[in-house]
Amino acid sequence: MRNIPIAKPLIGDEEINAVVEVLKSGMLAHGKEVEAFEKEFADYLGAKHGIAVANGTAALDVALKALKIGPGDEVITTPFTFIASATSILFQGARPIFADIDPKTYNLDPNEVLEKITNKTKAILVVHLYGQPADIKSFQEIAEDYNLYLIEDCAQAHGAEFGGRKVGTFGHIAAFSFYPTKNMTTGEGGMVVTNDDELAKRAKLIRSHGQAEKYYHVELGYNLRMTNMAGALGRVQLRKLDEWNRTRNENAARLSEGIKKISGLVPPYVDPRVYHVFHQYVIRVEDDFPMGRDELMAKLRERGIGTAVHYPMPVHHQPLFQKLGYEKDCCPNAIEASKRVLSLPVHPAVSDEDIAYILETLKELAS
């Protein structure tokens, strides 16, 4: 039986050799490979500073700490995301405030955000979900009008663009993840990105024990450094990112061409202002499809097609947030999306034959 995984890290001889060279050098911890990766990644985005960290969650935490978000502050974000977007706010002693999503893009809706602003609001944390940039120009305007920080969660959006400009460069600070399922990987890893010299300086201190120079500690910090092995891997992956993103777009276009002809399935909407990098290819299963989303998922799995649900429960419905007293009724678009979305394989290892098989299987299940 055919086996098409939902995600597949692409690790070749070039990546393996780069990591082996680091192992041979004996310089395994944060060093020249990481510093080179930081510069190359920042240059790729058109940003001034890249600060590499241990993972994407650490990148969010460091970004928020660099902005001095703290107790009593509110940060508006989306409930339709991976939980780290919200828990990183809790770790500051601040309160996540959830605003609803645009039902077409699944990204945070600027009009909903406007309704949530109070005198306690300190920042907006915007997630570029599935690799599609949010309406970031609108969020820039809101942040400017209300004197708020703008934080970009780019964990799924490496190389994505809004109006020809790469995400991660619109806000005061941004966070990226290099988890193995992302469009590029360092195994585990993350990056804080900013054009602000002072924020970059603070992020570097927080990342490494608050250490301004060796054994001289000026504030409270962690050890969240990236290893040289991860840095070497990231440098090779970054060189391949644009080609891989083009392949994701080609695969997505072929999938959409077939899926739009199947009644009851809705292919992803792409905002004409953006370059979507399809970290996930997410369809919507409507009521007129012969079976529900979860049954469709099971049938596809039986036929060797990997699928996933991103995400089956909005963040404010999670037990953690229910214990914190969050209302279940808010954000109806996010609740509805969680019942209907289904991710299909779109990564660069998916072949034309795989796509034909996926479409053929969906047509068969629709009949």
Automatic annotation (TrEMBL):
GO annotation, biological process: polysaccharide biosynthetic process
Assigned keywords, A-Z: Aminotransferase, Pyridoxal phosphate, Transferase
UniProt GO MF annotations: pyridoxal phosphate binding; transaminase activity
A Pfam short name: DegT_DnrJ_EryC1
Entry keyword annotation includes Transferase: yes
InterPro entries: DegT/StrS_aminotransferase, PyrdxlP-dep_Trfase, PyrdxlP-dep_Trfase_major, PyrdxlP-dep_Trfase_small
Protein family (similarity comment): Belongs to the DegT/DnrJ/EryC1 family.
Cited PANTHER family: DTDP-4-AMINO-4,6-DIDEOXYGALACTOSE TRANSAMINASE (PTHR30244:SF34), TRANSAMINASE (PTHR30244)
The protein's name in its UniProt record: Aminotransferase DegT
Organism annotation: Thermococcus thioreducens
